[in-house]
Amino acid sequence: MDDVKLEIAAVAARMVVEEGMEWGPAKRRALRQLGLKAGTPLPDNDLVEDAVREHIELFCADTQPAELAALRKLAATWMERLQTFRPYLAGSVWHGTATRLSDIYIQLFCDDSKSAEIALIDKGVSYEARTVTGLRGEPVEALSLSSLCPELGEAVGVHLMVYDHDDLRGALRPDAKGRSPRGNLRALRALLDNSGT
User: Fold this and answer.
1) Fewest CB within 10 angstroms: 86, 91, 146, 159, which?
2) pTM score, two decimals?
3) Which pLDDT tens digit goes with each residue over 3-19?
4) How many CB atoms lie within 10 A of CB 13?
5) What angle do CA 94, 119, 80 make, to 5 degrees?
């Protein structure tokens, strides 16, 4: 294993956990912070995830489980509200590496791409629409909003990524570690039940 990549991953993991940064920007900032050249190969996300888990275990083991449970409960609330659109939880809240600084990423698989946006408008939910990179590198719409997390006593970013219903099939393939990269409401409730919350 390349020691430089391990060092970049460790610095990036600290930024992810302590500052709530996304992994890509954290890796690039770690590169600059370590004074490395711009072309230096970055660690892959699996290596960063391992470093994030290690950082949480060393520095946040007493607080992170409750914060993760709070974020998962909030995600479940939004998934229940948007059940018509086949919601799946992804990212750090799904994988168990989230802290109170993490945002929630829910992927919606819709028959009509505008239907989720219309549903938010009908519910009186304020959101910001933007285009982001999707599952296969394609542009997709993200509806970003802020939602109060009662257990944390603060607002959390919730990002609804809007996909076509046909994209669901490929989205359920296991990742490189053999895990499901996202989970539906039933799978999320099973995680909450197993964590004792």
Assistant:
1) 146
2) 0.91
3) 999 999 999 999 999 99
4) 27
5) 35
